[in-house]
Design brief:
It contains eight helices and five strands. With 182 residues, it is α+β, with helices and mostly antiparallel strands. The protein folds into two domains: 107 residues, Arc Repressor Mutant, subunit A; 75 residues, no CATH class. The chain starts with a helix and ends in a 7-residue tail after the last helix.
Length: 182
Amino acid sequence: MLYLQTEGLKSQVVELGDSQTAFIRSLGLPVNGGPRGSIAMIKEQTLRISRCNFVLQWQEVDEQRSKQTVVDARITDGLEFWNNADGAWAGSVRLNDRFYEHLVNHSVPLDKRAIAHLCGSSLALDLYALFAYRLPRLEKDLFFSWQNMQNQIGSEFFRSYDRRKKIIHILADVRCLPSRQH
């Protein structure tokens, strides 16, 4: 998903490369086959993302009124995988118009090194993306309660203490990372 968002800023049609091996390597992952290898995992994840529907929701507030916006969207309008007789693979993804427009207007540049460093933890990636988005836009101090954090990124930790403990543990890694690509 991060790859589609990064490349989607360049073009609405995202090329996945001349081969699946090259694509997987560009993600910084090892290339291995078999039912639990990266090849099957990446292909399955790509197919899932291409069929994904999601909801964008945000609120805009000014001095006189508040506007709540909810948009149902698809990420892609299509996906093509080509497998040649020689085993070469190529693919492309066409981002949905609404998703593409939202991406261009609200993108948050993330550093690939930071993503690679945090790739083992979806919670760490969520925190990194949240802070990369929120911190540059702050005009004054912001109090962020643990419940606010839960609402922003979600979590499998239901008790406040467990959630806080896990976030504090991960925060050390997230705090030292750059937020923009160089």
